[in-house]
Design a protein that fits this description.
Length: 359
Amino acid sequence: MIKYIGSKRVLAGVLGDLLARSGARTALDLFTGTTRVAQEFKRRGASVIAVDTARYSEVFARCYVETDGAAVDAGDLGEALRYLGQLPGEAGYFTETFCVRSRYFQPFNGERVDAIRTALDRDFAGSALWPILLTSLIDAADRVDSTTGVQMAYVKTWAPRSFNPLQLRPPSLLAGPGRAVRGDARVVVKELPPVDLAYLDPPYNQHRYFTNYHIWETLVAWDAPPHYGIACKRLDSRDEATKSVFNQKAAMAAALRQVVTDVKASVVVLSYNNESWVALDELVDMCSVHGQVAVLPFDSKRYVGAQIGIYNRSGQKVGRVSHLRNLEYLVVAGPRRLVARMTAPYAASALPRPSGALA
Ligand SMILES: C[S@@+](CC[C@H](N)C(=O)[O-])C[C@H]1O[C@@H](n2cnc3c(N)ncnc32)[C@H](O)[C@@H]1O
């Protein structure tokens, strides 16, 4: 899975446990990103709907959530990966934009990305393997990038991993049903069927996913867009249509309140961290429409960029990271008994809430 700000790598197991303790058979991951949490829910036996606005998230969701892994012939997949993996590199838009004009990848790898992505549409368009192969390509490119974790800058001297040759690996598919939906959570949530458990992990500050991961957007869209600046961001990054209300300080809280109110689920689990715009109390108030609310705090490492340092656009280290740990919270809301059963193992650490504490 790709490096991703806000990815719930550490909390995925806890979220899986919460799902299991709730007895949920159907689940919704409304801001699915890497699909890490949706995958965990599917692994625990739930039928999952994964939603996000990002094109690459939809591809990941089609691969890991929508594809029934039991129906995929491992031999066919292996053969397709071998065929794509041995294609000779051929410089195109990707190489020119992301390896020559900017330096996110070494040209010898960029040329292979160009060749493989072109072959994907030529030889696998409409095939059930297409999202699986494209997921494999994005993961492979992510492993050999030369960034600090986001695609707003690349490091000045090539990162050691960028010297490795791009290697396609088979994604770890999961058996069972699921659904991928690309769309705005505010709209989609009104149209989806009710689920047993809904998980919400929205952006909580100004950092836009569309620009932070613009290369993955382009690798999926394969539309060779005009770009601007040293980072070679897509020109349509400036369009309102590519901006999320969840990155707008004045509008974010109201939008989240609306989504929390509209979501049709027996129990709602919401991720939150102490670097966000919304106050925890406000979040608890929003969630109380679903019944009892419990808040579970977790100490967690900050995103990968913070681990590496702060760099300017030329890749020079310019600042010190203020702190490397932060507090992540899971807010659990639903019928009192259900919430109590789900959160029982964490009762000692749960924060007491005014609306009838469960801690
Ligand atoms: C904090 S990340 C989710 C991370 C995810 N839980 C994971 O573990 O990978 C927030 C996600 O919300 C998505 N997003 C932003 N605005 C959205 C909107 N209006 N509707 C749906 N998804 C949105 C972003 O593309 C991003 O993937």
